[in-house]
């Protein structure tokens, strides 16, 4: 069903007419190619000679000069191709003027007058149909053929991608099973060579958070949350709660103590984050990345086993065929 409204909106009326003309010529040309290939076989030729001699007499000159007949179609196809190229250059559809033939390579290959290249003329029909669908002049989504092709195209992609993912995960599991030193490699090859960058980033990030908490507006929520947490901890402390037994002054002392402790904690956090520099972070991380002991090596192996089991679950999940679930619905 052709949408006249979308056709007028796309302003592709002339090109639509050319597209339909090209599709008709391509269909005729492909049918002729198919018929001529069948006509060349002895069985079909004998059938036409015995049963339809008139057709044989009419088509025999075409068969003998089929190369030149095909050249006539090729001349039309190349003329239309050159016209679209000129228009594309004028409208600057591509960054360079010579990009057009590379994008529409199948048009050029299909114009080569040899049997192996003629099949690419089918792609030209597909490109025309895609162009019509792109401008929503013809909507193929509601057709059974489109849904059929889309479904099996997705089946093909899912089967292909699932096998690739499972293969990649299986290779990773094999590496782990062979004693892959994953954690050691991360430490030695990733973290240590970039220690300066990592420590600088940690220092700058810590200082930034310190400035955010210190700022009256942006840090109000964090400071209020810390103050509430500290105040609750102070009130729940049994030694502090004994101040309630002091007449008159007990509750006042408790409130002032809560406020003082909360301010001390907030200021300590702000000072801790703001005073961190690259050297301190480097010393801290250097002390945190020592040589692994035997116990730590065993723990690393256990971690790798966990990773391996996780990969098994991922492979099992990936192997689920969603297209079969759609068919069973």
What does this entry look like structurally?
This protein is mainly alpha-helical and 329 residues long. The chain has two domains: 4-140; 193-288, no CATH class. The chain contains 18 helices and no strands. The radius of gyration is 38 Å and the shape is elongated.
Keywords:
2 domains; 329 residues; 18 helices; elongated; single chain; mainly alpha
Tell me the Rg in angstroms: 38 Å
Q: What is the number of independent domains? A: 2
Tell me how many strands there are: 0
N-to-C order of helices and strands: HHHHHHHHHHHHHHHHHH
Low-pLDDT residue intervals, each spanning 5 or more residues:
none
The dominant shape is: elongated
Task: Give the end-to-end Cα distance, rounded to a whole number of Å.
Answer: 30 Å
Helix content: over 70%
Taking all residues together, what is the mean pLDDT?
77
Query: Total number of helical segments?
Result: 18
Strand count, sense and barrel status of the largest sheet are:
none
- How big a fraction of the residues is strand? under 5%
**What structural category do the secondary elements indicate?**
mainly alpha
Q: What's the helix and strand layout?
A:
Elements: H1 4-10, H2 13-39, H3 42-51, H4 53-64, H5 66-90, H6 99-103, H7 105-110, H8 115-118, H9 121-134, H10 144-177, H11 182-191, H12 195-214, H13 220-236, H14 238-241, H15 249-275, H16 278-288, H17 294-318, H18 322-328
What's the short version?
This protein is mainly α. The protein contains 18 helices and no strands. It folds into two domains: 4-140; 193-288, no CATH class.
């Amino acid at each position: 069903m052709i949408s006249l409204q979308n056709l007028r909106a796309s302003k592709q009326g002339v090109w639509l007419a050319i597209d339909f003309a090209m599709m008709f010529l391509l269909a005729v040309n492909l049918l002729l190619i198919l018929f001529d290939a069948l006509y060349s076989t002895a069985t079909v030729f004998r059938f036409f000679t015995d049963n339809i001699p008139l057709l044989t007499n009419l088509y025999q000159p075409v068969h003998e000069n089929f190369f030149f007949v095909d050249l006539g179609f090729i001349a039309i196809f190349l003329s239309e191709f050159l016209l679209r190229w000129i228009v594309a250059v004028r409208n600057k559809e591509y960054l360079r003027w010579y990009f057009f033939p590379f994008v529409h390579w199948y048009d050029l290959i299909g114009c080569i007058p040899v049997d192996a290249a003629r099949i690419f003329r089918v792609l030209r029909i597909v490109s025309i149909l895609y162009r019509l669908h792109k401008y929503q002049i013809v909507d193929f989504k509601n057709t059974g053929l489109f849904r059929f092709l889309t479904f099996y195209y997705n089946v093909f992609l899912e089967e292909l991608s699932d096998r690739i993912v499972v293969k990649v995960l299986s290779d990773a599991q094999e590496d782990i099973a062979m004693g892959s030193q994953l954690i050691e490699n991360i430490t030695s090859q990733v973290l240590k060579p970039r220690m300066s960058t990592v420590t600088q980033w940690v220092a700058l990030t810590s200082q930034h958070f310190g400035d955010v908490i210190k700022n009256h507006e942006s840090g109000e929520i964090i400071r209020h949350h810390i103050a509430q947490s500290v105040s609750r901890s102070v009130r729940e402390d049994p030694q502090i709660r004994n101040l309630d037994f002091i007449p008159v002054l007990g509750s006042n002392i408790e409130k002032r103590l809560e406020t003082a402790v909360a301010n001390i904690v907030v200021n300590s956090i702000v000072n801790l984050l703001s005073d961190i520099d690259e050297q301190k972070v480097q010393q801290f991380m250097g002390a945190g990345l020592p040589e692994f002991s035997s116990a730590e090596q065993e723990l690393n192996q256990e971690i790798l086993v966990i990773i391996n089991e996780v990969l098994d679950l991922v492979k099992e999940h990936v192997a689920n065929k969603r297209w079969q679930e759609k068919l069973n619905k």
